[in-house]
Design a protein that fits this description.
heterodimer, A: about 400 residues, mainly alpha, about 0% strand, globular, B: about 250 residues, 10 helices
Chain lengths: ~400, ~250
């Protein structure tokens, strides 16, 4: 059933996945050259994905090319007023998606070639604009359109960005509905979010066991990490407090606490360590990585409310806690415990020394002028990322 | 300060215990903590250095040399113990050193004077980094470092050239320079299949060509409507051109 929803040929997708896994094993010197030759013959895939940097190049140029396509069309047809504009936009969007389906995917076998992504984003953006126009007063309509289009791209084209967007729109929708209901529903928002993402996490683990298809691997990683992070954030004291004040008009003076404050403090402190514990128990690198991230976030949260006086001391302390935790886990995993060890047995695409060195050099950017953090980010993505978390890693 | 000093000594003890002797080729130490300790010690030395300056009120005296010293320390550590991350940091520190000591910026007083020549410095520094990487490669010293040098050199070079294009009075000259060098680099990178550099050169070249066209239309007082057609058609034409040669960059 799922296969018919996906635009690509799933058999070819699986071959491609096997091939890249095998390539990885060859690079890690687990497989021999002769074995590799045999595998690469047997699993030769018709799908076309260029190398990474060419993908970026193709993506940039096709995004500029496709998103400016509306210019010539308008120039030829002439000014048609607002409705005409929306209809043209819808038409262009549908044409791009049609081109993507019939030419790029069916005939040329493109898969994540850069051009396909650009076509998905620009095509669906044109469609969204065509449907919504510039009137933003129908609030639920926006979230619903966004959610449906993102879900379409996430499922049909297996696009990961669309998957993230889909979850964002889903959160927005849920939040909007519950805060519009007001009263008890409003107060229950954190708990509803926690249980929803707890359920999504648990369900995705079950689903992954059921469909152990290799082609969905990345999708599951994204869904699981986002649900873990959102589960943590919906219990995080800072997030709950700030969102209550900003979006739901809760009146609090500086020292006052939100309702159930103790409970949220507890969640902020305990959830990350719970992740770490379960990560080691269940041998999941994902859980461990997320636990380190959330520990840093918790440190920042507690710092925000119980300052030790000097920020330098606080940063040093939280860095120290992270280092000590990593060292303890390092030591603990020195022996192989349940098939899980600290040593890098296989090559991972994220373990590129060139990339790591480039990122490391960015921490040295001494003469950068710090930008003021914008105050109205709804999902609080930006607030934590700066000073604290960045430096202590 | 004492704490930092003690940590440095302890770190160096650890490093010297596990470090392998220097060699021109790639050296990898078989000790899990080694890389982390190395970075930690290097950064600690630099912090100690900064602390000493502030503590003894040497900031104003030393301001012209601090970044050079930091860069020197980082380069030494990078070459002695073979570490790319430290090399990148060294290049970054050196860029700061060049930026500080050549531009008329008074850091101590926190005043920004005119930064008009900054892009010239950036371009020249980029070229120097590129040449240094190439020379060291020729000399056979740490050949695997060349990519880092090239990457930083090209980024600096193109960033300098592009900002010069928009800032300077003689922007068209810089644009011309960018087009020529990007063309050459595209050809070179395409041949060698270094697609990251091909990406840089394509983007820089496209921006420069577009800039020149804008200037040209300005000059002949032409119609800007031209660009309504220019962007979609040039981009798509370039795509078709690339995709027709896709066997060249099929897979990694």
């Amino acid at each position: 059933m799922i296969n018919s929803l996906i635009a690509y040929d799933t058999a070819e997708l699986e071959k491609k996945k096997v091939l890249s896994e095998a390539e990885n094993l060859v690079k890690s010197k687990v497989l021999s050259g002769a074995q590799w030759l045999k595998i690469s013959e047997e699993f030769a895939s018709k799908l076309y994905t260029p190398s990474l940097f060419m993908r970026v190049l193709l993506f940039i140029f096709s995004l500029i090319g496709m998103s400016t396509l509306i210019g010539p069309v308008i120039a030829i047809i002439g000014n048609t007023g607002r409705w005409g504009f929306q209809i043209i936009s819808l038409f262009i969007g549908i044409s791009i998606v049609f081109f993507l389906e019939s030419v790029l995917i069916k005939r040329k076998g493109h898969f994540n070639s850069g051009i396909t992504e650009a076509a998905i984003y620009s095509g669906l953006s044109f469609i969204a604009f065509g449907l919504l126009g510039s009137n933003t007063d129908k609030v639920l309509f926006i979230q619903l359109t966004g959610f449906v289009l993102a879900a379409f791209a996430a499922i049909r084209y297996l696009n990961l960005t669309a998957l993230v967007l889909m979850i964002v729109f889903f959160c927005w929708l849920l939040f909007r509905i519950m805060s519009d209901m007001g009263g008890v529903a409003e107060a229950l928002i954190p708990f509803v979010f926690m249980s929803v993402f707890g359920i999504i996490y648990g369900y995705s683990i079950r689903l992954q066991k059921k469909y152990s298809k290799v082609i969905f691997e990345n999708q599951f990683v994204v869904i699981k990490s986002i649900s873990l992070i959102l589960f943590y954030l919906s219990g995080n004291y800072f997030v709950v407090r700030e969102l209550s004040i900003r979006l739901m008009g809760l009146n609090l003076s500086g020292a006052e606490d939100i309702p159930f404050a103790f409970f949220f403090y507890m969640l902020t402190g305990l959830v990350p360590f719970g992740y770490l514990y379960w990560g080691i128990r269940q041998k999941s690198v994902l859980l461990i990585r997320i636990s380190l991230l959330t520990i840093a976030l918790s440190a920042v949260t507690f710092k925000y409310y119980f300052s030790l006086g000097s920020p330098a001391l606080m940063i040093t302390l939280s860095g120290l806690i992270l280092i000590i935790l990593s060292l303890i886990s390092f030591k603990y995993l020195k022996q192989i415990r349940g098939g899980f060890t600290r040593d890098l047995l296989l090559n991972d695409k994220w373990h590129s020394p060139d990339l790591a060195s480039f990122i490391a050099s960015q921490t040295l950017g001494g003469n950068r002028i710090s930008e003021p953090v914008s105050e109205d980010t709804i999902f609080n993505g930006g607030r934590f990322g700066g000073g604290g978390a960045g430096e202590t890693w | 300060m004492a704490l930092i000093g003690v940590s440095i000594v302890a770190g160096f003890y650890f490093i010297s215990k596990y470090a392998l002797p220097y060699s021109d080729s790639e050296v990898s130490v078989n000790q899990v903590y080694f890389d982390y300790i190395l970075i930690l010690v290097s950064l600690l030395i630099i912090s100690l250095f900064a602390y000493v300056q502030v503590y003894f009120g040497l900031v104003e005296v030393m301001i012209n040399y601090t970044s050079w010293v930091s860069a020197g320390i980082l380069f030494f550590m990078a070459y002695r113990y073979d570490h790319k991350a430290l090399l990148s940091m060294g290049i970054t520190a050196m860029a700061a050193a060049v930026g500080i000591s050549i531009t008329p910026v008074d850091w101590v007083k926190g005043e920004w004077s005119a930064t008009s020549d900054l892009y010239v410095v950036t371009i020249l520094f980029g070229i120097v980094v590129l040449i240094a990487g190439q020379l060291l490669y020729r000399a056979g010293i740490k050949r695997h470092f060349r990519f880092t040098f090239q990457n930083f050199g090209l980024i600096l070079y193109f960033m300098g050239a592009l900002s010069a294009m928009f800032d300077s009075e003689i922007g068209y000259l810089y644009a011309g320079l960018t087009v020529v060098s990007a063309g050459f680099l595209s050809w070179y990178a395409w041949g060698k299949r270094v697609f990251l550099f091909f990406l840089y050169s394509s983007l820089a070249g496209y921006i420069a060509i577009t800039y020149l066209l804008f200037k040209l239309i300005d000059l002949i007082q032409g119609d800007y409507h031209f660009f309504t057609y220019y962007f979609p058609f040039t981009c798509i034409a370039y795509l078709v051109f690339l995709v027709n040669r896709k066997s060249h960059f099929a897979h990694d």
